[in-house]
Amino acid sequence: MVVTGLLTLLGGLAGCGLVLVAGGSGLLPLRARQQGRPERTSGRSGRSRRVIPIALGAGLLAALITRWPVSFPLAALAVLGTEGLAGNTSKPVIARLEAVASWTEMLRDTLVGAAGLTQALAVTAPIAPRPIRREVATLANRVSAGVSLAGALVAFAGDLSEPAADTVVAALTLAANERSPHLTELLGVLADTTREEVAVRLRVEASRASARTAVRTIAGFSLGLFALMALFARAYLSPYRTLTGQLVLALVGCIFGLGLWLMAVMVRPRVLGRLSLRVPPR
Fold it and tell me: CA–CA separation, 263 vs 214, rounded Å?
């Protein structure tokens, strides 16, 4: 009974660590993603799917080298945790923000040339910045297909899923339903505000990059030292071969995984709230 209880506790601790690190690395959906705006996670999801076989392979290799049952989940934890701390996930978001600012300026300049809003959308669609060119082209196609301008703009905001784009769409939607003599000035202000947000995000991301580097260095040295000890200091690690040693190792590994998860949460970009846009009643 005691052995069964210890094994159950061992498995529970390992599973808890897997859940924590998977949440920090983006393999599990978070409440903010379910209740907030839909994130564009296709690239990140692809990376997450690719890292799962690597994590399983690392766990199998660790189990073969150490012959410890607990080494399999702990090695998988390490791979998943470092994947959550690798890379700059804000770079595509910042690129889209810059694209929204540039496209807003294009609209402003086109409207200054006495073009109507529908015509301005059609003119800027082929030359829109590449990160949002597909969405802008879809917007122009919807308008040309007979969709109401306000409805097409609201759908366009949903395609972009960016808070900065929501403010631009809100201004354009109001202009589509009511005469707005100061639309060009408003678009210029919104473009400047978006560029200021890009500058702030770049500064924040620079500090996060240094934090990620420090975390990866600490994790790499810790895991590397443990791997060297497992290969060349087996006598020193021999107490961990017992059931009690495996339980202690699982506890230490879960604490280490919890630390990785907390650090991944600390350097992960926050999800900003979006405006709730609807088609105004006629």
Answer: 10
